[in-house]
Design brief:
Layout lengths: L4 H15 L4 E6 L5 H13 L2 E6 L1 H8 L15 E6 L3 H14 L4 E7 L2 E4 L2 H6 L4 H44 L1
Amino acid sequence: MPLTRQQKDSLIADYAGGLAEAQHAFVLGFQGISVPKVTELRARVRAQGGRYIVVKNSLALRVIGEKPLGQLKDRFQGPTAVAFTSGDPVALAKALTDFAKDAPSIEFKGALLEGRAMDGSAVREIANLPGRQELIAKLLFLLQAPITRFVRVLAAVPQQFVTVIDQIRIEKEKQG
């Protein structure tokens, strides 16, 4: 059943609202996936702060033309969905690859990260990267370690001084 003009305008507005402006996006093929599985995938993507949209290729191509996602326009063939986020792309890639293990019919057609187009095979590599929170924790640990050692050294000087003074006191008490 063909779409009416009003339905097409609604889809174009929806695509323009998020898809066209996405800095991080994953283009997926989903042929042969059941509706409950798609619902589960949407929930996983939403949990990572992203959106999952099944697109009508001709309308999506109109919207993404000169936008960053336009670099992947040759991947918009056959049944196509786009998962995108303005947040952490690594977390979204992990959610998608975890889901793809249970649903082998999911095909990664391509990805857009920080405005750069990548192959679908790069999605699995991206998923293996540490997440944003993990990287921040590692950075804070690395920044905190030298300061902690410095404070320990500074605290040791007065402690050793007090120990020496105490030893002198004990010696003087023994002498007289």
